[in-house]
Amino acid sequence: MSEAKAEKGKELSNDAVDARIYMALIDAILDHKLPPGTRLVEAPLCEAFGVTRGTLRRVFVKLAHERVIELQPNRGAIIALHDIGEAREVFEARVILEVGSVKGLAAKPGNKNKAFAELREMIKKEHALREDGNWRDWIRLSGEFHIKLAEVNQNDIVSGYLRTLIARTSLLIGLYETPKRNSCSADEHIAILDAIEQGQPALAARLMEHHLGEYALGLLAEPTQPAEIDFGKLFAPVR
Q: Has this prediction a pTM greater than 0.70?
């Protein structure tokens, strides 16, 4: 690592440096530039980011804790491979929480106009991101829509559990699904909101279950063998 790069790293706090590397890796994963099974070789990554192995390993520990990567003996870090069983269980948990949440929300009286106006604005942004091919930000906004919808129901316990589950499913969608899917989540989100606003609990529940089921089905294919990655070229803009 050059002295210039080392000095650049010293200009930032450890937390800031860690966050920069963490987000660069997450973005590369969601952009399908680091496919599942890719080995994260320390030496070229340290050179690419201009950091020491200690700094990089600190980020690896965080990513491993979040199950984004796996730390394997004698192999080091690799992008986590798809576990079909786990993906199914995560989506099943979301169905249990979200179907019940929208069903209860549709049956609940009260003025929700302001919250639903905000949700519809989110859907417009979501649609625009997908149309522009901004896959990474679309995944994030789609997850935020589901969190916001749960928060409207004012159950902090459900919202808290859902945040954890959505973080995991957003990663799974980013890793394993591609933008080629024909169904548009923005349209599905609109239909769910319409059912809730019209006071149709059964319809809202059925639409949400179908919506989440569609995503789950998109994650059942086995991943392809990853190609060799040029980390220096991939992360050049992060230096």
A: no
